[in-house]
Write a structure and sequence with these properties.
alpha+beta, 17 helices, globular
Amino acid sequence: MSAKHAERIVIVGGGVAGWMTASYLKAVRGESVEVTLVAGGTADGHEDGEGDEASLGDLGEFFDTLQLAEDDWMPACDATYKLAVRFQDFSRPRHHFYLPFEQTREAGGFPLTEWWPRIGPSGRFDRDCFVAAWLCDAGRGPHPLTGPPPTGTMPAAPYGYHVDAAALARRLSRYALERGVRHLADDVVDVALDERGGIAHVRTAGREAVTGDLFVDCTGTRALLLGQALRVPFVSYQDTLPGDSVVTLRVPADMKAHGIAPYTAVTAQAAGWTWSIPLAGRIGTGYVYARAYCTPQEAEHTLREAAGPEAAGVPATHTPLACGRSLQAWKHNCVAVGAAAGRVEPLEATGISFVHHALERLVRHLPATRGDASGDAMAAGRDDYNPATARELDAARDFLTLHYLGAARGHTQFWRDAQTCEPPRALAAHLAHRREHPAGAPPHPAGLPRHAYTSILLGTGALAPHPPAALALADERPARREFAAVKERARALVRALPTQYDYVSRISA
Protein backbone atom coordinates (compact mmCIF):
# COMPACT_ATOMS: atom_id res chain seq x y z
CA MET A 1 0.00 0.00 0.00
CA SER A 2 1.46 3.21 -1.14
CA ALA A 3 -0.30 5.50 1.31
CA LYS A 4 -1.40 5.55 4.89
CA HIS A 5 -4.47 3.46 5.81
CA ALA A 6 -4.60 1.44 2.57
CA GLU A 7 -5.30 4.60 0.60
CA ARG A 8 -6.83 3.01 -2.52
CA ILE A 9 -9.44 0.38 -1.67
CA VAL A 10 -11.39 -1.28 -4.47
CA ILE A 11 -14.61 -3.09 -3.57
CA VAL A 12 -15.90 -5.52 -6.19
CA GLY A 13 -19.59 -6.29 -5.80
CA GLY A 14 -22.52 -4.23 -4.59
CA GLY A 15 -25.51 -5.28 -2.53
CA VAL A 16 -25.56 -5.12 1.24
CA ALA A 17 -22.00 -6.44 1.70
CA GLY A 18 -20.46 -4.03 -0.80
CA TRP A 19 -22.25 -0.91 0.39
CA MET A 20 -21.84 -1.79 4.07
CA THR A 21 -18.10 -2.06 3.37
CA ALA A 22 -17.91 1.23 1.50
CA SER A 23 -19.93 3.08 4.14
CA TYR A 24 -18.03 1.63 7.08
CA LEU A 25 -14.60 2.36 5.61
CA LYS A 26 -15.52 5.98 4.95
CA ALA A 27 -17.09 6.37 8.39
CA VAL A 28 -14.00 4.99 10.15
CA ARG A 29 -11.15 6.12 7.86
CA GLY A 30 -12.67 9.24 6.35
CA GLU A 31 -10.55 11.16 3.86
CA SER A 32 -7.53 8.93 4.42
CA VAL A 33 -8.98 6.31 2.03
CA GLU A 34 -10.09 6.47 -1.57
CA VAL A 35 -12.84 3.91 -2.04
CA THR A 36 -14.06 2.68 -5.42
CA LEU A 37 -16.97 0.24 -5.63
CA VAL A 38 -17.29 -1.70 -8.89
CA ALA A 39 -20.68 -3.33 -9.44
CA GLY A 40 -22.75 -3.77 -12.56
CA GLY A 41 -26.15 -2.14 -12.85
CA THR A 42 -27.56 0.27 -10.29
CA ALA A 43 -26.21 1.01 -6.86
CA ASP A 44 -28.75 -1.24 -5.21
CA GLY A 45 -27.90 -4.30 -7.29
CA HIS A 46 -27.40 -7.20 -4.94
CA GLU A 47 -25.67 -10.53 -4.80
CA ASP A 48 -26.81 -14.13 -4.31
CA GLY A 49 -30.54 -13.53 -4.33
CA GLU A 50 -30.53 -11.10 -1.42
CA GLY A 51 -34.08 -10.22 -0.48
CA ASP A 52 -34.92 -9.72 3.17
CA GLU A 53 -32.45 -9.92 6.02
CA ALA A 54 -32.64 -10.42 9.77
CA SER A 55 -29.70 -9.55 11.97
CA LEU A 56 -28.15 -10.58 15.23
CA GLY A 57 -28.41 -8.40 18.29
CA ASP A 58 -25.33 -6.24 17.78
CA LEU A 59 -26.02 -4.71 14.35
CA GLY A 60 -26.96 -1.41 15.97
CA GLU A 61 -23.24 -0.85 16.53
CA PHE A 62 -22.76 -0.65 12.75
CA PHE A 63 -25.28 2.18 12.44
CA ASP A 64 -23.81 3.87 15.51
CA THR A 65 -20.43 3.92 13.74
CA LEU A 66 -22.07 5.55 10.74
CA GLN A 67 -23.87 7.96 13.10
CA LEU A 68 -27.19 7.01 11.51
CA ALA A 69 -30.13 7.20 13.89
CA GLU A 70 -32.85 4.60 13.50
CA ASP A 71 -35.37 7.08 12.13
CA ASP A 72 -32.73 8.08 9.53
CA TRP A 73 -32.59 4.64 7.95
CA MET A 74 -35.31 2.26 9.22
CA PRO A 75 -38.29 3.76 7.32
CA ALA A 76 -36.33 3.78 4.05
CA CYS A 77 -35.48 0.10 4.51
CA ASP A 78 -38.95 -1.12 5.57
CA ALA A 79 -37.16 -2.15 8.77
CA THR A 80 -38.60 -3.53 11.99
CA TYR A 81 -37.19 -4.69 15.32
CA LYS A 82 -36.21 -8.25 16.14
CA LEU A 83 -36.13 -9.27 19.81
CA ALA A 84 -35.69 -13.00 19.24
CA VAL A 85 -36.01 -16.00 16.95
CA ARG A 86 -39.19 -18.00 17.48
CA PHE A 87 -38.67 -21.71 16.80
CA GLN A 88 -41.83 -23.61 15.92
CA ASP A 89 -42.40 -27.39 15.74
CA PHE A 90 -38.77 -28.31 16.43
CA SER A 91 -39.75 -30.23 19.54
CA ARG A 92 -43.33 -31.28 18.75
CA PRO A 93 -46.22 -30.00 16.64
CA ARG A 94 -47.66 -26.62 17.70
CA HIS A 95 -44.87 -26.04 20.22
CA HIS A 96 -42.70 -22.95 20.12
CA PHE A 97 -39.94 -21.27 22.08
CA TYR A 98 -37.92 -18.09 21.77
CA LEU A 99 -34.18 -17.56 21.59
CA PRO A 100 -33.86 -13.89 22.58
CA PHE A 101 -30.85 -11.57 22.44
CA GLU A 102 -31.46 -10.69 26.08
CA GLN A 103 -28.90 -12.01 28.53
CA THR A 104 -30.26 -14.25 31.27
CA ARG A 105 -30.26 -13.20 34.90
CA GLU A 106 -28.08 -15.09 37.37
CA ALA A 107 -28.56 -16.39 40.89
CA GLY A 108 -25.80 -17.87 43.02
CA GLY A 109 -23.39 -17.67 40.08
CA PHE A 110 -25.61 -19.73 37.75
CA PRO A 111 -27.81 -18.37 34.94
CA LEU A 112 -31.55 -18.93 35.24
CA THR A 113 -31.46 -21.22 32.19
CA GLU A 114 -29.41 -23.67 34.29
CA TRP A 115 -31.68 -23.28 37.32
CA TRP A 116 -34.78 -23.81 35.22
CA PRO A 117 -34.67 -27.63 34.76
CA ARG A 118 -34.53 -27.90 38.56
CA ILE A 119 -36.98 -25.27 39.83
CA GLY A 120 -38.50 -23.57 36.76
CA PRO A 121 -41.85 -22.08 37.82
CA SER A 122 -43.71 -23.04 34.62
CA GLY A 123 -43.45 -25.19 31.53
CA ARG A 124 -42.04 -22.30 29.45
CA PHE A 125 -38.34 -21.81 30.09
CA ASP A 126 -38.25 -18.80 27.77
CA ARG A 127 -40.99 -16.88 29.63
CA ASP A 128 -39.54 -17.88 33.01
CA CYS A 129 -36.03 -16.70 32.10
CA PHE A 130 -36.52 -13.79 29.68
CA VAL A 131 -38.57 -10.62 29.53
CA ALA A 132 -38.26 -10.68 25.72
CA ALA A 133 -40.39 -13.83 25.44
CA TRP A 134 -43.31 -11.98 27.04
CA LEU A 135 -42.81 -9.02 24.71
CA CYS A 136 -42.75 -11.32 21.69
CA ASP A 137 -45.94 -13.10 22.72
CA ALA A 138 -47.61 -9.71 23.17
CA GLY A 139 -46.24 -8.23 19.91
CA ARG A 140 -44.46 -5.41 21.73
CA GLY A 141 -41.48 -3.45 20.42
CA PRO A 142 -38.44 -2.45 22.52
CA HIS A 143 -39.16 1.31 22.74
CA PRO A 144 -41.96 3.51 24.09
CA LEU A 145 -43.84 5.72 21.67
CA THR A 146 -41.69 8.65 22.76
CA GLY A 147 -38.84 7.11 20.75
CA PRO A 148 -35.52 5.30 21.29
CA PRO A 149 -33.89 6.02 24.64
CA PRO A 150 -30.90 8.39 24.80
CA THR A 151 -27.51 6.95 23.89
CA GLY A 152 -26.07 4.98 26.79
CA THR A 153 -29.42 3.83 28.22
CA MET A 154 -30.92 0.39 27.68
CA PRO A 155 -34.05 -0.47 25.68
CA ALA A 156 -36.66 -2.76 27.20
CA ALA A 157 -34.78 -5.70 25.65
CA PRO A 158 -31.77 -6.01 23.33
CA TYR A 159 -32.68 -6.32 19.67
CA GLY A 160 -31.60 -6.77 16.09
CA TYR A 161 -33.44 -5.78 12.92
CA HIS A 162 -35.45 -7.08 9.98
CA VAL A 163 -34.62 -5.17 6.78
CA ASP A 164 -35.25 -5.15 3.04
CA ALA A 165 -31.75 -5.89 1.75
CA ALA A 166 -32.08 -4.03 -1.54
CA ALA A 167 -33.48 -0.97 0.23
CA LEU A 168 -30.65 -1.04 2.75
CA ALA A 169 -28.13 -1.21 -0.10
CA ARG A 170 -29.77 1.87 -1.63
CA ARG A 171 -29.68 3.77 1.65
CA LEU A 172 -26.04 2.90 2.30
CA SER A 173 -25.05 3.71 -1.29
CA ARG A 174 -26.41 7.22 -0.78
CA TYR A 175 -24.47 7.52 2.47
CA ALA A 176 -21.25 6.31 0.83
CA LEU A 177 -21.56 8.40 -2.32
CA GLU A 178 -22.19 11.54 -0.27
CA ARG A 179 -18.86 10.88 1.45
CA GLY A 180 -16.82 10.49 -1.70
CA VAL A 181 -17.04 6.82 -2.62
CA ARG A 182 -16.75 6.35 -6.38
CA HIS A 183 -19.28 3.94 -7.88
CA LEU A 184 -18.22 2.39 -11.18
CA ALA A 185 -21.41 0.81 -12.54
CA ASP A 186 -19.85 -1.92 -14.65
CA ASP A 187 -19.10 -5.63 -14.51
CA VAL A 188 -15.64 -7.01 -13.79
CA VAL A 189 -14.65 -9.29 -16.66
CA ASP A 190 -10.96 -9.91 -15.85
CA VAL A 191 -8.68 -9.97 -12.81
CA ALA A 192 -4.98 -9.38 -13.48
CA LEU A 193 -2.42 -10.71 -11.01
CA ASP A 194 0.97 -9.21 -10.17
CA GLU A 195 4.31 -11.00 -9.94
CA ARG A 196 3.73 -11.86 -6.25
CA GLY A 197 0.38 -13.50 -6.93
CA GLY A 198 -1.72 -10.61 -5.62
CA ILE A 199 -4.21 -8.57 -7.62
CA ALA A 200 -2.72 -5.88 -9.86
CA HIS A 201 -6.04 -4.58 -11.22
CA VAL A 202 -9.53 -5.57 -12.25
CA ARG A 203 -10.81 -4.81 -15.74
CA THR A 204 -14.41 -3.93 -16.45
CA ALA A 205 -16.59 -4.65 -19.46
CA GLY A 206 -16.04 -1.03 -20.44
CA ARG A 207 -12.29 -1.74 -20.61
CA GLU A 208 -11.37 0.32 -17.56
CA ALA A 209 -8.49 -1.07 -15.49
CA VAL A 210 -9.12 -0.32 -11.81
CA THR A 211 -6.02 -0.45 -9.63
CA GLY A 212 -5.84 -0.41 -5.86
CA ASP A 213 -3.80 -1.24 -2.80
CA LEU A 214 -6.44 -3.50 -1.27
CA PHE A 215 -9.25 -5.34 -3.07
CA VAL A 216 -12.39 -6.38 -1.17
CA ASP A 217 -14.36 -9.28 -2.62
CA CYS A 218 -18.09 -8.69 -2.05
CA THR A 219 -19.27 -10.85 -4.96
CA GLY A 220 -21.15 -13.35 -2.81
CA THR A 221 -20.70 -17.07 -3.26
CA ARG A 222 -19.18 -16.46 -6.72
CA ALA A 223 -16.08 -15.26 -4.86
CA LEU A 224 -14.87 -13.70 -8.12
CA LEU A 225 -11.60 -12.44 -6.66
CA LEU A 226 -10.73 -14.75 -3.80
CA GLY A 227 -12.08 -18.01 -5.18
CA GLN A 228 -11.87 -17.67 -8.95
CA ALA A 229 -8.84 -15.41 -9.44
CA LEU A 230 -6.72 -16.34 -6.40
CA ARG A 231 -8.00 -19.93 -6.30
CA VAL A 232 -8.54 -20.13 -2.56
CA PRO A 233 -10.21 -23.50 -1.81
CA PHE A 234 -13.75 -23.74 -0.44
CA VAL A 235 -14.43 -25.73 2.76
CA SER A 236 -17.96 -27.18 2.63
CA TYR A 237 -20.28 -27.48 5.63
CA GLN A 238 -22.78 -29.65 3.78
CA ASP A 239 -21.99 -32.73 5.86
CA THR A 240 -23.65 -31.21 8.94
CA LEU A 241 -25.83 -28.44 7.48
CA PRO A 242 -28.03 -30.40 5.05
CA GLY A 243 -29.95 -27.56 3.38
CA ASP A 244 -28.71 -27.05 -0.20
CA SER A 245 -31.57 -25.09 -1.81
CA VAL A 246 -33.77 -22.09 -1.02
CA VAL A 247 -37.09 -20.83 -2.34
CA THR A 248 -38.31 -17.38 -1.30
CA LEU A 249 -41.43 -15.23 -1.58
CA ARG A 250 -41.98 -11.50 -1.01
CA VAL A 251 -45.55 -11.50 0.26
CA PRO A 252 -47.62 -8.28 0.27
CA ALA A 253 -49.62 -8.07 3.48
CA ASP A 254 -51.86 -5.78 5.48
CA MET A 255 -49.45 -5.35 8.38
CA LYS A 256 -52.02 -3.43 10.43
CA ALA A 257 -54.27 -6.48 10.32
CA HIS A 258 -51.39 -8.93 10.75
CA GLY A 259 -49.48 -6.97 13.34
CA ILE A 260 -45.69 -6.79 13.11
CA ALA A 261 -44.17 -9.61 15.12
CA PRO A 262 -40.98 -8.59 16.97
CA TYR A 263 -39.26 -11.84 16.02
CA THR A 264 -38.18 -13.98 13.09
CA ALA A 265 -40.32 -17.13 12.98
CA VAL A 266 -38.61 -20.39 11.98
CA THR A 267 -40.71 -23.53 11.49
CA ALA A 268 -39.55 -27.12 11.02
CA GLN A 269 -40.84 -28.63 7.76
CA ALA A 270 -40.63 -32.08 6.20
CA ALA A 271 -37.32 -31.48 4.39
CA GLY A 272 -35.90 -28.45 6.18
CA TRP A 273 -37.35 -25.29 7.68
CA THR A 274 -39.18 -22.14 6.69
CA TRP A 275 -38.68 -18.60 7.92
CA SER A 276 -40.94 -15.56 8.12
CA ILE A 277 -39.48 -12.04 8.39
CA PRO A 278 -42.04 -9.32 9.12
CA LEU A 279 -41.18 -5.98 7.54
CA ALA A 280 -43.07 -2.72 7.90
CA GLY A 281 -45.01 -3.24 4.68
CA ARG A 282 -44.86 -6.92 3.81
CA ILE A 283 -43.59 -10.35 4.86
CA GLY A 284 -40.45 -12.03 3.53
CA THR A 285 -40.58 -15.80 3.70
CA GLY A 286 -38.44 -18.69 2.51
CA TYR A 287 -37.81 -22.42 2.74
CA VAL A 288 -34.34 -23.92 3.18
CA TYR A 289 -34.53 -27.56 2.12
CA ALA A 290 -32.45 -30.50 0.91
CA ARG A 291 -33.12 -31.60 -2.64
CA ALA A 292 -32.38 -35.22 -1.77
CA TYR A 293 -35.66 -35.21 0.19
CA CYS A 294 -37.79 -32.67 -1.65
CA THR A 295 -38.22 -31.34 -5.20
CA PRO A 296 -38.24 -27.59 -5.88
CA GLN A 297 -41.92 -27.85 -6.80
CA GLU A 298 -42.75 -29.57 -3.51
CA ALA A 299 -40.73 -26.97 -1.61
CA GLU A 300 -42.54 -24.08 -3.28
CA HIS A 301 -45.91 -25.70 -2.54
CA THR A 302 -44.98 -26.07 1.14
CA LEU A 303 -43.84 -22.46 1.32
CA ARG A 304 -47.01 -21.12 -0.32
CA GLU A 305 -49.16 -23.13 2.08
CA ALA A 306 -47.22 -21.72 5.03
CA ALA A 307 -47.46 -18.15 3.68
CA GLY A 308 -51.23 -18.34 3.18
CA PRO A 309 -53.57 -16.87 0.56
CA GLU A 310 -51.72 -13.55 0.33
CA ALA A 311 -48.89 -15.40 -1.46
CA ALA A 312 -51.15 -16.39 -4.38
CA GLY A 313 -49.65 -15.15 -7.64
CA VAL A 314 -46.45 -13.92 -5.97
CA PRO A 315 -43.43 -15.10 -8.02
CA ALA A 316 -41.07 -17.47 -6.24
CA THR A 317 -37.28 -17.24 -6.43
CA HIS A 318 -35.30 -20.50 -6.37
CA THR A 319 -31.56 -20.42 -5.59
CA PRO A 320 -28.91 -22.97 -4.62
CA LEU A 321 -27.41 -22.78 -1.13
CA ALA A 322 -23.74 -23.69 -0.68
CA CYS A 323 -22.76 -23.53 2.98
CA GLY A 324 -19.09 -23.33 3.89
CA ARG A 325 -16.16 -20.92 3.92
CA SER A 326 -13.05 -20.00 2.03
CA LEU A 327 -9.95 -21.66 3.44
CA GLN A 328 -8.51 -18.14 3.71
CA ALA A 329 -10.63 -14.99 3.86
CA TRP A 330 -7.60 -12.73 3.19
CA LYS A 331 -4.92 -13.69 0.68
CA HIS A 332 -2.24 -11.33 -0.60
CA ASN A 333 -4.00 -7.97 -1.09
CA CYS A 334 -7.51 -9.38 -1.37
CA VAL A 335 -9.94 -9.80 1.53
CA ALA A 336 -13.43 -11.29 1.31
CA VAL A 337 -16.41 -9.85 3.15
CA GLY A 338 -19.83 -11.47 3.29
CA ALA A 339 -20.70 -14.67 1.46
CA ALA A 340 -17.44 -14.53 -0.51
CA ALA A 341 -15.72 -15.40 2.79
CA GLY A 342 -18.35 -17.93 3.82
CA ARG A 343 -21.96 -18.51 4.72
CA VAL A 344 -24.13 -20.83 6.77
CA GLU A 345 -27.82 -21.64 6.66
CA PRO A 346 -29.74 -18.51 7.72
CA LEU A 347 -31.31 -20.34 10.67
CA GLU A 348 -29.96 -17.72 13.08
CA ALA A 349 -29.79 -14.90 10.48
CA THR A 350 -26.05 -14.35 10.69
CA GLY A 351 -25.34 -13.01 7.17
CA ILE A 352 -25.68 -9.25 7.52
CA SER A 353 -24.21 -9.30 11.04
CA PHE A 354 -21.18 -11.30 9.91
CA VAL A 355 -20.51 -8.56 7.33
CA HIS A 356 -20.43 -6.08 10.21
CA HIS A 357 -18.10 -8.28 12.26
CA ALA A 358 -15.78 -8.73 9.27
CA LEU A 359 -15.56 -4.96 8.82
CA GLU A 360 -14.70 -4.48 12.48
CA ARG A 361 -11.85 -6.96 12.05
CA LEU A 362 -10.72 -5.45 8.76
CA VAL A 363 -10.31 -1.88 9.99
CA ARG A 364 -8.33 -3.14 12.98
CA HIS A 365 -5.93 -4.96 10.70
CA LEU A 366 -5.45 -2.46 7.88
CA PRO A 367 -1.82 -1.29 7.77
CA ALA A 368 -1.46 2.14 9.32
CA THR A 369 1.76 3.42 7.77
CA ARG A 370 3.09 3.97 4.29
CA GLY A 371 4.85 1.08 2.63
CA ASP A 372 3.20 -1.63 4.72
CA ALA A 373 1.52 -3.38 1.80
CA SER A 374 4.10 -6.15 1.54
CA GLY A 375 5.57 -5.77 5.00
CA ASP A 376 4.97 -7.13 8.46
CA ALA A 377 1.80 -5.10 9.10
CA MET A 378 -0.06 -6.61 6.14
CA ALA A 379 1.10 -10.13 7.05
CA ALA A 380 0.11 -9.62 10.68
CA GLY A 381 -3.31 -8.45 9.58
CA ARG A 382 -3.87 -11.56 7.51
CA ASP A 383 -2.54 -13.80 10.27
CA ASP A 384 -5.15 -12.42 12.67
CA TYR A 385 -8.05 -11.91 10.28
CA ASN A 386 -8.03 -15.38 8.73
CA PRO A 387 -8.27 -17.49 11.91
CA ALA A 388 -10.79 -15.06 13.44
CA THR A 389 -13.05 -15.34 10.40
CA ALA A 390 -12.69 -19.13 10.33
CA ARG A 391 -13.53 -19.37 14.04
CA GLU A 392 -16.66 -17.28 13.65
CA LEU A 393 -17.99 -19.27 10.71
CA ASP A 394 -17.06 -22.64 12.22
CA ALA A 395 -18.72 -21.65 15.50
CA ALA A 396 -21.87 -20.69 13.57
CA ARG A 397 -21.81 -24.04 11.76
CA ASP A 398 -21.50 -25.87 15.10
CA PHE A 399 -24.32 -23.89 16.68
CA LEU A 400 -26.65 -24.43 13.72
CA THR A 401 -25.82 -28.15 13.67
CA LEU A 402 -27.06 -28.25 17.26
CA HIS A 403 -30.51 -27.19 16.03
CA TYR A 404 -30.69 -30.39 13.96
CA LEU A 405 -29.13 -32.74 16.51
CA GLY A 406 -31.30 -31.34 19.29
CA ALA A 407 -34.64 -31.41 17.47
CA ALA A 408 -37.01 -33.97 18.99
CA ARG A 409 -38.89 -34.22 15.69
CA GLY A 410 -38.30 -37.48 13.85
CA HIS A 411 -41.36 -37.32 11.65
CA THR A 412 -39.56 -37.51 8.30
CA GLN A 413 -36.45 -39.17 6.91
CA PHE A 414 -34.79 -35.75 6.56
CA TRP A 415 -34.94 -35.14 10.32
CA ARG A 416 -33.98 -38.69 11.22
CA ASP A 417 -30.90 -38.43 9.03
CA ALA A 418 -30.03 -34.93 10.27
CA GLN A 419 -30.14 -36.09 13.87
CA THR A 420 -27.77 -38.98 13.25
CA CYS A 421 -25.07 -37.12 11.33
CA GLU A 422 -21.63 -36.96 12.90
CA PRO A 423 -21.25 -33.53 14.52
CA PRO A 424 -18.19 -31.34 13.98
CA ARG A 425 -15.35 -32.18 16.34
CA ALA A 426 -15.69 -29.12 18.56
CA LEU A 427 -19.44 -29.58 18.96
CA ALA A 428 -19.05 -33.29 19.73
CA ALA A 429 -16.48 -32.45 22.41
CA HIS A 430 -18.76 -29.84 23.94
CA LEU A 431 -21.76 -32.17 24.06
CA ALA A 432 -19.63 -34.88 25.66
CA HIS A 433 -18.31 -32.37 28.20
CA ARG A 434 -21.83 -31.18 29.07
CA ARG A 435 -22.85 -34.68 30.07
CA GLU A 436 -20.22 -34.58 32.81
CA HIS A 437 -20.02 -30.82 33.45
CA PRO A 438 -23.30 -29.16 32.43
CA ALA A 439 -22.19 -25.64 33.33
CA GLY A 440 -20.41 -23.55 30.72
CA ALA A 441 -20.70 -23.04 26.99
CA PRO A 442 -18.37 -23.27 23.98
CA PRO A 443 -17.36 -20.25 21.92
CA HIS A 444 -20.49 -18.90 20.22
CA PRO A 445 -20.93 -16.52 17.30
CA ALA A 446 -20.63 -12.85 18.22
CA GLY A 447 -24.04 -11.22 18.47
CA LEU A 448 -25.64 -14.24 20.16
CA PRO A 449 -26.11 -14.37 23.94
CA ARG A 450 -24.10 -16.69 26.18
CA HIS A 451 -27.17 -18.75 27.00
CA ALA A 452 -27.73 -19.65 23.33
CA TYR A 453 -26.56 -23.29 23.52
CA THR A 454 -28.53 -24.05 26.68
CA SER A 455 -31.66 -22.36 25.33
CA ILE A 456 -31.58 -24.33 22.08
CA LEU A 457 -31.16 -27.58 24.02
CA LEU A 458 -34.03 -26.69 26.36
CA GLY A 459 -36.29 -25.71 23.49
CA THR A 460 -35.63 -28.39 20.89
CA GLY A 461 -36.01 -31.22 23.38
CA ALA A 462 -33.96 -34.19 22.18
CA LEU A 463 -30.79 -33.33 24.10
CA ALA A 464 -32.31 -31.54 27.10
CA PRO A 465 -29.52 -30.40 29.44
CA HIS A 466 -29.28 -31.47 33.06
CA PRO A 467 -28.71 -28.85 35.76
CA PRO A 468 -25.18 -28.62 37.16
CA ALA A 469 -24.69 -30.94 40.11
CA ALA A 470 -23.57 -27.99 42.24
CA LEU A 471 -27.12 -26.63 42.18
CA ALA A 472 -28.21 -29.44 44.49
CA LEU A 473 -26.21 -27.74 47.25
CA ALA A 474 -27.09 -24.16 46.34
CA ASP A 475 -29.71 -21.96 48.00
CA GLU A 476 -32.76 -21.88 45.72
CA ARG A 477 -34.26 -18.69 47.17
CA PRO A 478 -32.20 -16.18 45.11
CA ALA A 479 -33.16 -18.02 41.92
CA ARG A 480 -36.84 -18.04 42.84
CA ARG A 481 -36.63 -14.28 43.46
CA GLU A 482 -35.05 -13.76 40.04
CA PHE A 483 -37.73 -15.84 38.31
CA ALA A 484 -40.35 -13.71 40.06
CA ALA A 485 -38.54 -10.52 39.03
CA VAL A 486 -38.57 -11.55 35.37
CA LYS A 487 -42.33 -12.08 35.53
CA GLU A 488 -42.95 -8.78 37.32
CA ARG A 489 -40.84 -6.70 34.92
CA ALA A 490 -42.29 -8.47 31.87
CA ARG A 491 -45.87 -7.73 32.92
CA ALA A 492 -45.03 -4.09 33.53
CA LEU A 493 -43.38 -3.70 30.12
CA VAL A 494 -46.22 -5.42 28.28
CA ARG A 495 -48.59 -2.90 29.87
CA ALA A 496 -46.34 0.09 29.11
CA LEU A 497 -44.91 -0.56 25.64
CA PRO A 498 -46.73 -0.10 22.32
CA THR A 499 -47.14 -2.83 19.74
CA GLN A 500 -44.36 -2.94 17.21
CA TYR A 501 -46.84 -1.94 14.50
CA ASP A 502 -47.80 1.23 16.38
CA TYR A 503 -44.18 2.20 17.01
CA VAL A 504 -42.92 1.49 13.48
CA SER A 505 -45.89 3.38 12.03
CA ARG A 506 -44.98 6.40 14.16
CA ILE A 507 -41.34 6.60 13.04
CA SER A 508 -42.37 5.95 9.42
CA ALA A 509 -44.97 8.73 9.37
